[in-house]
Design brief:
Number of strands: 15
Oligomer: single chain
Helix content: 25-40%
Structural class: alpha/beta
Strand order of the largest sheet: 2-8-7-6-5-3-4
Shape: globular
Bound molecules: D-malate
Mean pLDDT: 97
CATH class of the largest domain: Alpha Beta
CATH architecture of the largest domain: 3-Layer(aba) Sandwich
CATH topology of the largest domain: Aspartate Aminotransferase, domain 2
Length: 394
C-alpha cells in the first residue's frame, strides 16, 4: 500500500478551514464578541421564491407514484440543460445542450476535470487566485508555473510567449481580486492556448456580477474559444445555491486534443463517477432562468452590489488602495500598516471583531493584501465598515 504522498506537499489545511478554525478559537476565548463574518464568500439571502416554488412542486412529484423519479441522467436533465443553453443564447453564445454538464458545483468540477488530463502536463495558474486550482494540481503531483498578477498589471496577467503551459487557469471576474478580463484581453489567452495546443479552464463563477462595457461573461464570447476552453459556472453566487449545490461545466464538441473529443472523455468520466444532481435541486435551478426567477435574482444581486459599493466607499474614505467591488462581490485591498496578511487578519479580528480572508492564502502575490466579501447581510456590511473606519480613526 502506498499513499498519494503529493498530499504531504499541501498546506496543513485548506484556506477557508484555517480561517474557520481561527475564528472558532477566538469566539471560544471571547464569547461576548459580536463577530462579523466577511471571510468566505458565502451568500446570506434566501433562495428566490420562484426557486422555492419549483423545488416544492418537485418534492410533491417525488411523493407520488406516477411522478416519482429515481436516477436521472448523470449529465443533467434536459429541461435544465436547455435552460442553460437559452441563458447563453441570450448573450450571443450558441451551445448544444450536450455540451453542458450539470454538476454539484464549480469547485467539484474544477478539481474533477483533472481526471481527463495526464499528470505530465504543466499548468499555468495566476497568482493570486482561488486556492482550489493549486491544491488539486499539487494533489496530482503536476508541475505548476505561475502567471504573476499584481497592482502593476491590474491583477490581469496576459500570456508570456516564453512560458510553455499545457493547462491554463483563468478566473474572471477574479477571485480574490475582482479584476475582470475584457473579451479583447481574453483573445490573447485564446490565441496563446491555440498556438500551443493548450486547454484553458475558465472559471466563470462570478460572471453574474459583470456590468462593465466590453468585459467578458463567458470565454466563448471570444472567437476560437470553443476550440481551446472549458468553462465552469455555478448557481452558488448567481442564485444563492451554496447550500443547495448546483453548477455546470461546458465542454464544447469542437475541443479536441490528440484526435480525441474532450466532451466524450468528460461524459465518460461523469457517467462513471457521478450520479447526477438531485431532481429537486435541478428543478429549482431551472427556475432561475424563468422571467420571474431572473427578476428575483437580479434583486438579490443588487443587494450584494450595494454591499460591495459600501466596502469600496469605506476604502475610498480611508485612502486605502483596493481593486474589485465592481463587477465582483469581493473587495481586495492592501493591508493598511501591515505587510503580513495573517497579522492583519488577527488585528482586525481582535480590534474590530471583523473576519476577512488573508490575501496570502491566495498566493504569494496576495501577501500584504486582504479580501472582504459583499455576500454578507446589509446590516453586517454596514456595521463592519463603521468598525473599520472607527479603528483607523482611533
Ligand atoms: C470563496 O470565498 O472564495 C468562495 O466562497 C469559495 C468557493 O466558492 O468555494
Amino acid at each position: 500500500m502506498k499513499l498519494n504522498r503529493n498530499y504531504l506537499n499541501l498546506e496543513e489545511s485548506y484556506l477557508f478551514s484555517t480561517v474557520a478554525r481561527k475564528v472558532s478559537a477566538f469566539s471560544a476565548a471571547h464569547p461576548e464578541a459580536k463577530i462579523l463574518r466577511m471571510g468566505i464568500g458565502d451568500v446570506t439571502l434566501p433562495l428566490a421564491p420562484a426557486v422555492i416554488s419549483a423545488m416544492q412542486a418537485a418534492v410533491a412529484e417525488m411523493g407520488k407514484k406516477e411522478t416519482f423519479r429515481g436516477y436521472g441522467p448523470e449529465q443533467g436533465y434536459d429541461f435544465l440543460r436547455e435552460s442553460i443553453r437559452g441563458y447563453y443564447g441570450r448573450r450571443g453564445v450558441d451551445l448544444d445542450a450536450d455540451e453542458i454538464f450539470v454538476s454539484d458545483g464549480a469547485k467539484s468540477d474544477l478539481g474533477n476535470i483533472l481526471d481527463i488530463f495526464d499528470r505530465d502536463n504543466t499548468v499555468l495558474i495566476p497568482d493570486p487566485v482561488y486556492p482550489v486550482y493549486v491544491d488539486t494540481n499539487i494533489m496530482a503531483g503536476r508541475q505548476i508555473v505561475f502567471a504573476e498578477a499584481n497592482a502593476d498589471n491590474g491583477f490581469l496577467p496576459l500570456p508570456d510567449a516564453g512560458v510553455q503551459a499545457d493547462i491554463i487557469y483563468i478566473c474572471s471576474p477574479n477571485n480574490p481580486t475582482g479584476a475582470a478580463y475584457s473579451v479583447e484581453q481574453l483573445r490573447a489567452w485564446v490565441d496563446y492556448a491555440r498556438a500551443r495546443g493548450a486547454v484553458i479552464l475558465y472559471d466563470a463563477a462570478y460572471e453574474c456580477f459583470v456590468e462593465g462595457q466590453g468585459l467578458a461573461r463567458s470565454i466563448y464570447e471570444t472567437e476560437g474559444a470553443k476550440e481551446c476552453a472549458i468553462e465552469f459556472c455555478s448557481f452558488s453566487k448567481t442564485a444563492g445555491f451554496t447550500g443547495t449545490r448546483c453548477g455546470y461545466t461546458v465542454v464544447p464538441k469542437a475541443l479536441r486534443r490528440e484526435g480525441v473529443s474532450l466532451n466524450k472523455l468528460w461524459l465518460r468520466r461523469q457517467t462513471t463517477k457521478f450520479n447526477g444532481v438531485p431532481y429537486i435541486v435541478q428543478r429549482g435551478a431551472a427556475a432561475v432562468f424563468t422571467e420571474e426567477g431572473e427578476k428575483q435574482i437580479r434583486e438579490n444581486l443588487s443587494v450584494y452590489r450595494r454591499n460591495a459599493k459600501r466596502l469600496c466607499d469605506c476604502m475610498d474614505a480611508l485612502g486605502i488602495f483596493y481593486t474589485g467591488g465592481k463587477n465582483s462581490p469581493y473587495v481586495w485591498f492592501r493591508c493598511p500598516g501591515f505587510s503580513d496578511s495573517w497579522q492583519f487578519f488577527d488585528y482586525l479580528l481582535e480590534k474590530a471583531n471583523v473576519v476577512g480572508t488573508p490575501g496570502c492564502g491566495f498566493g504569494k502575490n496576495g501577501q500584504g493584501f486582504f479580501r472582504l466579501t459583499a455576500f454578507g447581510s446589509e446590516e453586517t456590511t454596514q456595521e463592519a465598515t463603521e468598525r473599520i473606519k472607527n479603528l483607523w480613526k482611533a
